[in-house]
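Known limitations

Structure tokens in this collection are predictions and should be treated as such. Users comparing against experimental data should check residue numbering before alignment. To illustrate the layout, the record for Glutamate--tRNA ligase is reproduced below. The input appears on top and the generated tokens appear beneath it.
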Amino acid sequence: MNVRTRFAPSPTGFIHLGNIRSALYPWAFARSQGGTFILRIEDTDLERSSQAAVDVILEGMRWLGLDPDEGPYYQMQRMDRYREVLAQMREQGLIYPCYMSVEALDKLRERQMAAKEKPRYDGTWRPEPGKTLPAVPEGVQPVWRFRNPIGGTVAWDDKVKGRIEISNDELDDLVIARPDGTPTYNFCVVVDDIDMQITHVIRGDDHVNNTPRQINIFRALGQEPPVFAHLPTVLNEQGEKMSKRNGAKPVTQYRDEGFLPDAMVNYLARLGWSHGDAEIFGREQFLQWFNLDHLGRSAAQFDEAKLRWVNAQHMKLTADEALAQLVKDLLARREIATDARLPALCGLLKDRCDTTVALADWVARFYTDVQPDPAELKKHITEGVRPALGMLAKMLEACPWTREDIAEAIKETLRATGLKMPQLAMPVRVVVMGTAQTPSLDAVLALSQRERVVERLQNA
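Generated tokens:
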């Protein structure tokens, strides 16, 4: 079987991490099986769909490297195809016109609920042998309903939820075309999946209730349905379903906040799938391991602290040159020019950062005039330490500018003044870098500009 999967978002809101996970798994399954991954934009909700939301989908997937092999296809561009299939279904008697008004349908549901029955369409306009239909009202355009099978069950073996069986008697005759002829969601999805030869539908479990209806439409059209895998919900940190309404951020915001795409893929992969106890892995390893048998059945909860930890691990594993390019771009937006020191600076500082934005903040100290915190200055720059700072400035002015020679100049200053390393190192850090917390002092100074270091020590 040539595996063909799809991601079919609706551009009615900005795509967030819960949505993009529903793209990651079908992408990974297609890649792991040498198959085809398709992007389909389900944009039939004209009132709520927006080009801005489409742009975030495309941009977010591009950033994460979830590139489709086909698409994007847009449902609004396939309307002629849907109408063609509707015409075929009319000819085959698979659908029928229903003239029940919205008001009549609402009253029917009220009566059913009062009688503690499940609210559902009662088949008033469904043609049956020997049945007399009501008179067609004048000037009313009907909806078109699908003749759902009567009796029996719809069943499928879900790759996440296991065996699911629904009685056909629980399903009423679904509206698949509105009075103006525009098709409805469940019908469009089936036609698309047939035309695109989708073999596996991997999507959120909010679609479980649609699945039996879609399976019946597949079979009415003479097609076997694909394999289904319904993913549990992603919850936010408050335990609510992740959504824009509940504060979820567009996926592209994580890019802007300095997260690495491979770290995001790693973190998202673990939100509903696992391979033993593996926490940190690269994209290639993920694709080697991934299958549908290890998808979790329980809702996964987003944890930003865990995401930051995963990102920090990936930053440590990322080549200094690659980080340097990301940091260079970030600093360019702040109008800070960099130089050949940048890769080495990233290598020195990356272990203490959890995002590239945090790394850029650190690196910026080497290219701008830092302003030490007055409280730090008062604490560390005392009359007793100022002579040592002046002595160190003179030694650094004359010594070769290497880490080893700088380390020797610091040791010589300590020997001459009788100070302990923290008594000298902390003031130097505050004066040169604006903070008492930095990596090894000799490494920091070696990557700083000599003139700037000497000037700041002399003026302390």
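For this record: Residues 4-80+184-234 form a domain with the Rossmann fold fold (CATH 3.40.50.620). The first helix runs from residue 17 to 32. Please report discrepancies through the issue tracker.
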